[in-house]
Amino acid sequence: MTRYPKAPAAGVAIDRLAWMSGWWSSKKDGERLEEVWSSPDAGVMIGMFRWIHGDAPSLYEFLVLKSGLAGLELHIKHFASDLAGWEQKDATTAFDLVRVEDREAVFASRAEENSGWVVYRVAEDGWLEFEEASEGEASGPTLLLRFEPVGRPSGGRLGA
Q1: What pLDDT does residue 103 have?
Q2: For the purposes of burial, counting CB atoms within 10 Å of the CB of 20, is it exposed (0-12), middle (13-18) or buried (19 or more)?
Q3: d(Cα 119, Cα 146) in Å, to the nearest integer?
Q4: Beta bridge partner(s), residue 96
């Protein structure tokens, strides 16, 4: 049984995901995680993620949420601590928005070798959750990260 849909959700405006915008942080067992999302502007949201082990960064991500031919797309570029990219120069790890409800967005992987999803949601306690889920994972998410809200963008356009 499929845990989430796989077909792109057509006609979803990027403003429906404005609840993701803000500065989100997590601390656990000597690790610090941070994710920052811009407000929607010009049909795009951009994000940044960093994972710090002890006093040294171990992973960075640049994220772009934008409209595509089939609907909203999430593109991620991963970088090691020395800024060496994980993906090929002209490639991203890409996902299609397949479902959005209130404060939850589900994205299906485009990669043939990965039939999974990533899910962003704001939980009842106000924390942002990032979940990786794989096909057939009945026992729960493959990865679940929780982020405390640290701040919200002021809204509006740059320079406004």
Answers
A1: 95
A2: buried
A3: 12
A4: 73, 108
Q: List the CATH number of the domain containing 139.
A: 2.40.128.20
Contacts of 34 (CB under 8 A, 6+ apart): 23, 24, 25, 26, 48, 49, 50, 52, 147
pLDDT at 57: 92
* Residues of the chain where predicted confidence (pLDDT) is lower than 70: 1-2, 113-114, 136-141, 152-160
pLDDT confidence of residue 46: 98
Hey, how many other C-beta atoms are within 10 angstroms of the C-beta on 30? Answer: 9
Q: Which two tokens stand for residue 150?
A: 């640290």
Domain count, the chain: 1
In a domain, 6, yes or no: no
Residue 160 domain flag: no
The greatest distance separating any two alpha carbons of the chain, rounded to the nearest whole angstrom, comes to: 48
- 157 found inside a domain: no
- The pTM for the full model equals 0.86
Residue 152's pLDDT is what? 61
Q: Which residue type sits at 116?
A: G
